[in-house]
């Protein structure tokens, strides 16, 4: 089944708005009509099974184009609107694409000259000139490719994660299940749609007939606060930096009342337990869902039920519905409680593979299991606790140190907005520990000596950072995820 049919077929006669926000509203009727017309045009103009680039910030246009590309039987390739020309040209070459949907700003900045370049005005023209047909389900098969999402990874060459229609349908259904989403839910979206976490919000709220509020200006924190109340948002989703900034940079947020906010979700990296506690203390009536996932899993792999935060704080939970998670040793055997192993996953949400990279695919998917590269432990109840990625472990004089343990201590200090622990070369130890801090300017007492004293009181001596650097702001990428050097 085509994933767009799965998302929209039940809403062809639905009344009311789907998109809300300061940039305008869009009803379900209008959305479905525009998607249908654009999909018809695409099928006529370029055929099917073509890779179509999409470079737009979150908007009515980007959503319509995204859905229409997949509805037409083609493959959507969402890209960061800030992509540089050389990077874009390389991906166009790899994908063999001759069609791109791009915002006016991107068209001008990159001077796009592909066969089919559709900006906002062109989309409007195509939709107006395309004859209307009744909505009918596509002939797409479950395992047909729906999208390719390029991830930066650990190398200079981005890897293209191939996501099928089955993957999207499966992950959407699982997320709706454990979040208990209904048509009454309204989500504030600050995450971009070239990022799988952002796309999962779009998919789930479309499927249940809910509403979304688009906010591309998270940097203006008051705009988020205003949205949550103005549109009576029931949900908010963020990566760690979003919660850190809201809690430690904005006194207004912590002291605001959000009577409609039923839940929040956090993924895209580990949020230190200090921040989770702060949020729950400030908003005891709002459920906090800790989640874990990867692009290779369409979005989501695990969640920690809010009612287990008290006794399982720090855990990434267990597998979401219809997803099996294990933590295994080097031989592929399940680890014993307390032992460190690698998280592996199986389910209909696991990617088809990496685009044009069969060898990389074979080392990542083995025997139907996705090998995530993330190290973790399990407890006696089967709850999983993230340790680190293999590449993050620091070896100080031969002793293995997890950066997260040190970061947890430092962000526990009132006034610290963010802390990044990284390895630096040391002639004696091999590697030494460096802490990079973002501190609220009102807390002048937080100095290098103060940080080292706190660490010395709570950590083994070899885990105390040798050097400390203070910077102005958290360094994040376009998805809001923290960027490490």
Low-confidence spans: none
Q: What integer is the average pLDDT? A: 93
Largest sheet: 9 strands, mixed
Structural class estimated from helices and strands:
alpha/beta
Provide the CATH architecture of the largest domain: 3-Layer(aba) Sandwich
Strand order of the largest sheet: 2-1-10-9-11-12-13-14-15
User: What is the CATH fold-level name of the largest domain?
Assistant: Rossmann fold
Rg measurement, Å: 23 Å
Say how many strands there are.
26
CATH superfamily of the largest domain: ANL, N-terminal domain
Which CATH class of the largest domain applies here?
A: Alpha Beta
Beta-strand fraction estimate: 25-35%
Terminal CA distance: 42 Å
Q: What is the approximate shape?
A: globular
Number of domains: 3
The helix content, as a percent range, equals 25-40%
Number of helices: 16
GO molecular function: medium-chain fatty acid-CoA ligase activity
Protein name: AMP-binding protein
Keywords: Ligase
GO biological process, one term: fatty acid metabolic process
Summarize the structure.
The protein has 485 residues and is of the alpha/beta class.
SSE topology:
Layout (H helix, E strand, L loop, with lengths): L2 H6 L8 E4 L5 E2 H19 L4 E5 L4 H12 L3 E4 L6 H11 L3 E4 L1 H7 L5 E3 L1 H10 L15 E7 L7 E6 H15 L6 E4 L6 H13 L2 E4 L6 H10 L4 E4 L1 H10 L1 H4 L8 E4 L6 H10 L4 E6 L9 E3 L4 H4 L5 E2 L4 E5 L12 E6 L6 E2 L3 H7 E2 L2 E10 L5 E6 L4 E3 L2 E3 L1 H9 L4 E11 L3 E10 L8 H11 L8 E5 L14
Parallel strand pairs: 1-10, 3-4, 3-5, 5-6, 9-10, 9-11, 11-12, 12-13, 25-26
Antiparallel strand pairs: 1-2, 7-8, 8-18, 13-14, 14-15, 16-17, 17-20, 19-20, 20-21, 22-23, 24-25
Pfam families: AMP-binding, AMP-binding_C
GO molecular function, one term: medium-chain fatty acid-CoA ligase activity
Organism: Carboxylicivirga sediminis
């Amino acid at each position: 089944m085509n994933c767009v049919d799965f998302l929209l077929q039940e809403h062809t006669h639905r009344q009311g708005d789907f998109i809300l926000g300061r940039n305008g509203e869009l009803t379900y009727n209008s959305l479905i009509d525009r998607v249908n017309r654009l999909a018809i045009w695409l099928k006529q103009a370029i055929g099917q099974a073509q890779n179509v680039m999409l470079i737009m910030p979150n908007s009515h246009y980007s959503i319509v184009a995204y859905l229409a590309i997949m509805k037409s039987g083609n493959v959507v390739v969402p890209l960061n609107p800030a992509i540089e020309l050389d990077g874009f040209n390389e991906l166009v070459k790899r994908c063999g694409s001759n069609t791109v949907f791009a915002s006016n700003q991107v068209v001008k900045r990159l001077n796009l000259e592909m066969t089919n370049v559709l900006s906002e005005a062109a989309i409007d023209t195509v939709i107006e000139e395309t004859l209307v047909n009744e909505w009918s389900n596509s002939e797409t098969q479950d395992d047909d490719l729906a999208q390719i999402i390029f991830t930066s990874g650990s190398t200079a060459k981005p890897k293209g994660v191939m996501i099928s229609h089955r993957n999207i349908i499966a992950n959407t259904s699982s997320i709706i299940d454990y979040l208990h989403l209904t048509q009454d839910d309204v989500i504030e979206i600050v995450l971009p749609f070239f990022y799988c976490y952002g796309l999962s919000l779009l998919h789930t709220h479309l499927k249940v007939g809910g509403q979304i509020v688009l906010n591309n200006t998270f940097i203006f924190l008051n705009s988020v606060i205003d949205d949550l109340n103005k549109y009576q948002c029931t949900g908010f989703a963020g990566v760690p930096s979003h919660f850190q900034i809201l809690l430690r940079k904005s006194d207004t947020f912590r002291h605001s009342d959000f009577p409609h906010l039923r839940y929040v979700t956090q993924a895209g990296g580990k949020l230190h337990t200090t921040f989770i506690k702060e949020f729950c203390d400030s908003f005891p009536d709002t459920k906090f869902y800790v989640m874990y996932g990867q692009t290779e899993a369409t979005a989501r792999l695990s969640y920690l039920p809010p009612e287990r935060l008290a006794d399982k704080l720090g855990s990434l939970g267990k597998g979401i519905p219809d997803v099996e998670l294990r933590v295994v040793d080097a031989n592929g055997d399940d680890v014993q409680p307390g032992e460190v192993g690698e998280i592996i996953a199986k389910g209909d949400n696991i990617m088809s593979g990496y685009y044009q990279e069969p060898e990389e695919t074979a080392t990542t998917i083995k025997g139907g299991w996705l090998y995530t590269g993330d190290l973790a432990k399990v407890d006696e109840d089967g709850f999983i606790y993230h340790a680190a990625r293999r590449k993050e472990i620091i070896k100080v004089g031969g002793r293995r140190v997890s950066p997260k343990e040190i970061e947890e201590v430092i962000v526990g200090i009132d006034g610290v907005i963010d802390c990044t622990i990284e390895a630096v070369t040391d002639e004696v130890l091999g590697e030494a520990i460096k802490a990079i801090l973002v501190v609220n300017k009102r807390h002048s007492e937080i100095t290098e000596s103060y940080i080292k004293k706190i660490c010395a009181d709570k950590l083994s001596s070899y885990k105390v950072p040798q050097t400390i650097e203070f910077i102005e702001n958290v360094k994040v990428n376009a998805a809001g995820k923290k960027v490490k050097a």
